[in-house]
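TODO from last week: model Transcriptional regulator.
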Amino acid sequence: MFDKEGGTTVRNSIAVRRKQRQLSQAEVAVLTNVTRQTINAIENDKYDPSLTLAFELAACLGTTVDELFDFRGKRE
């Protein structure tokens, strides 16, 4: 949920939606012009995509950015 320092965290449903569309990480990578490793890192919450890539992923997976990513703001 929140990182150790109480900062923001973004979770995503890329893997679930990718599998629903029967796409591999490599196929999504080609469709969004990034590497398979990038898709893997995003799916595993190791990397937050740029805004442009987030929109490309959402379009590729037939959803919206809001549906694909779950943003949790800074803890108060």
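Done. The beta strands are 9-12, 69-72.
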